[in-house]
């Protein structure tokens, strides 16, 4: 006897399972059609163009930096390209017609008086097609979290030979300090804008900086002051003074307002 297999399976199958199977197949077809018709849209998005623009400002004069070169570096997967433009009379610059490709990274940079100002890893997308990057030339930062004391060393030595035997010692301090920012660091000391101020123990005398042009003593506040801004990178400061340990207790902790990595203390033999 001839049997129609398909008719047999259909007639004996569960109608609920049959309905679920058809629905599942229709869902797959819908997803496939959506992906198929979305490809032209995605391609059209990547062909859109964006821009990077901004202003260069001379913070020393608080004026726009006009006719100044700004460089754009385009980092592609297999090549690197550069473009250069000049700021206008208002200090504005603009790079246009840039592809919105997540695989393309941009670097914007300029140089002024030997200092590099750079913004790296800039990415344009359909969500952020235009980015503004301003350069504050000659600007400063007062962010103390950008300052690290890499080392702070103390050496306790005998007093100078011509000093009276009154319980005095010579204290030599050396500080290795790093500015992690791209901008010079300034802070406030009273009404002055200074690069740094370091508290000295009370009762010090004969303060002598190791670099006379960088540090000075303010007797009224007992502070060693660096009058010039602290440049980016690492700077080493040092000074010597006399302290009478028999009169006042020598307190060396809590001297700086920044995070310290290493604290060293040296006392040669013969110093009690």
Q: Main beta sheet, described?
A: 6 strands, mixed
Q: How would you classify the helix and strand content by structural class? A: mainly beta
The residue-averaged pLDDT reads 80
The strand count comes to 20
Shape: elongated
Assign a percent range to the helix content: 10-25%
What is the level 1 CATH name of the largest domain?
Answer: Mainly Beta
Distance between the termini: 118 Å
- Figure out the total of helices: 2
Low-confidence stretches: 1-22, 36-45
Radius of gyration: 34 Å
Could you provide a short overview of the structure?
By secondary structure, this protein is mainly beta. Helix content is 15%, strand content 44%. The radius of gyration is 34 Å and the shape is elongated.
Walk me through the structure.
The chain is mainly β and 272 residues long. The chain has three domains: 5-41; 49-137, Immunoglobulins (Immunoglobulin-like, Sandwich); 144-266, Immunoglobulin-like (Sandwich). The chain has two helices and 20 strands. It has helices at residues 5-12, 15-46, and strands at 49-58, 63-64, 69-75, 80-86, 92-99, 105-112, 115-122, 130-132, 135-137, 147-157, 168-179, 187-189, 192-194, 196-199, 205-209, 215-218, 223-226, 233-244, 259-260, 263-266. Strands 10, 11, 15, 18, 19 and 20 form a six-stranded mixed sheet that branches. A hairpin with a 4-residue loop joins β3 (69-75) and β4 (80-86). It is elongated and about 80 Å long. The model is unreliable at 1-22 and 36-45 (pLDDT under 50).
């Amino acid at each position: 006897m001839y049997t129609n297999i398909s008719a047999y399976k259909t007639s004996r199958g569960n109608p609920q399972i049959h309905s679920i199977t058809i629905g599942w197949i229709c869902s797959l077809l819908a997803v496939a059609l959506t992906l198929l018709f979305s490809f032209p849209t995605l391609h059209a998005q990547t062909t859109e163009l964006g821009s990077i623009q901004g202003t260069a400002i001379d913070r020393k004069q608080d004026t726009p930096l006009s006719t100044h070169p700004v460089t754009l570096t385009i980092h592609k997967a297999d090549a690197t390209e550069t473009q250069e433009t000049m700021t206008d009379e208002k200090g504005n610059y603009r790079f246009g017609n840039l592809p919105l490709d997540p695989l393309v990274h941009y670097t914007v940079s300029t140089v002024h008086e030997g200092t590099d100002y750079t913004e790296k890893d800039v990415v344009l997308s359909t969500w952020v097609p235009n980015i503004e990057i301003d350069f504050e030339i000659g600007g400063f930062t007062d962010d103390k979290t950008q300052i690290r004391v890499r080392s702070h060393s103390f050496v306790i030595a005998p007093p100078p030979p011509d000093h009276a035997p009154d319980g005095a010692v010579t204290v030599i301090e050396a500080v290795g300090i790093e500015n992690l920012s791209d901008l010079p660091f300034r802070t406030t000391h009273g009404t002055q804008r200074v690069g740094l101020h370091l508290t000295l123990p009370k009762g010090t005398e004969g303060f002598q900086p190791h670099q006379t042009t960088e540090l000075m003593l303010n007797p009224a506040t007992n502070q060693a002051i660096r009058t010039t801004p602290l440049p980016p990178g690492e700077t080493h400061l040092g000074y010597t003074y006399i302290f009478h340990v028999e009169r006042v207790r020598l307190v060396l902790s809590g001297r700086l307002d920044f995070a310290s990595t290493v604290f060293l203390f040296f006392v040669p033999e013969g110093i009690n």
